[in-house]
């Protein structure tokens, strides 16, 4: 599992345990009442004053039924739905970790508390007895403690994963996400294409510092490349990638030999000129022969990057036609080492 995928799983789990969810508020109300009633009950039990004992006993009983009335306002069906959804998400994440790992044990511990609460809730809905409601409050008390701890840990992990190394002064990041099968060799081919394209831009513009550096390489079901380079060159390279992807999308799957190599080369030159203008690198625009030669070289390297249609995101932005874009999935926060 890549860092990107782990971040997505953790973010989804945080969303399904958000404080605005019905079941989370339901658990909070029950757990808070359980704690409060426990304190009241202990004060009565440890008191030698029989009047105080009797008063506390009646107060606890009245508060118990008040909590029951309060929880009747919650939508039972929605709570069941959210509980089932959370159990599914939790199971998906748990399966990603080794069977003997501490992470798996922690998630399984929370899953056990969640299962206990689910069963108590189901039993209360069926019987509506005071005994079942008391058991539900007790289960909520245990689950709420686990839930608070889990969310703290998840937020800490997400913060660590999403903590990007700040680019050097005058530098910029380029992050690409590909659909892949964990093939590191293919990942390195893509990285090499990026490096060659960057060098072509260096030769064209005369900008040689700083060189392109790798921030992160990951390969699993999806492959991720994150590189850092001179801000203007990265801006040009990013613009070329985005324009070339759109150009290919407009071909509607037609092969390059059918469209014509000259059309692609011409479009590559147009893209390069536009990207240079956008980055305010205009000194080279009068040298048409060098522009054409560089455009052809860049055209070949961009083909290596995008010809198989596996590119899903550029700098966390989904591309039209990509599986993530079509499914309506939301991009996860950037994560560069």
From TrEMBL:
<protein>
    <submittedName>
        <fullName>Uncharacterized protein</fullName>
    </submittedName>
</protein>
């Amino acid at each position: 599992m890549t860092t990107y995928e782990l971040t997505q799983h953790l973010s989804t789990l945080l969303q399904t345990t958000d404080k605005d969810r019905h079941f989370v508020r339901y658990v909070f109300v029950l757990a808070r009442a359980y704690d409060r009633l426990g304190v009241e009950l202990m004060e009565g039990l440890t008191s030698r004053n029989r009047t105080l004992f009797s008063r506390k006993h009646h107060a606890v009983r009245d508060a118990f039924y008040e909590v029951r009335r309060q929880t009747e306002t919650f939508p039972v069906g929605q709570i069941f739905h959210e509980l089932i959804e959370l159990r599914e998400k939790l199971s998906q994440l748990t399966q990603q970790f080794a069977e003997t790992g501490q992470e798996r044990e922690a998630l399984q511990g929370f899953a056990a508390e969640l299962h206990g609460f689910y069963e108590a809730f189901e039993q209360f809905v069926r019987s509506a007895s005071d005994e079942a409601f008391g058991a539900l409050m007790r289960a909520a008390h245990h689950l709420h403690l686990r839930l608070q701890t889990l969310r703290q840990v998840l937020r800490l992990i997400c913060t660590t994963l999403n903590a990007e190394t700040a680019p050097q002064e005058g530098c910029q990041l380029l992050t690409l996400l590909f659909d892949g099968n964990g093939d590191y060799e293919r990942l390195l081919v893509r990285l090499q294409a990026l490096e060659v394209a960057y060098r072509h831009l260096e030769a064209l513009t005369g900008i040689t510092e700083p060189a392109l550096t790798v921030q992160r390489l990951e390969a699993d079901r999806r492959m991720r490349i994150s590189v850092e380079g001179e801000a203007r060159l990265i801006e040009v390279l990013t613009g070329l990638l985005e324009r070339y992807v759109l150009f290919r999308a407009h071909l509607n799957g037609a092969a390059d030999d059918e469209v014509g190599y000259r059309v692609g080369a011409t479009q590559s030159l147009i893209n390069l000129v536009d990207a240079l203008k956008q980055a305010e690198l205009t000194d080279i625009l009068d040298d048409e022969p060098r522009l054409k030669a560089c455009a052809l070289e860049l055209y070949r390297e961009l083909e290596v990057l995008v010809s198989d249609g596996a590119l899903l995101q550029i700098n966390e932005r989904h591309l039209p036609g990509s599986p993530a874009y079509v499914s309506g999935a939301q991009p996860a926060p950037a994560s560069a080492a």
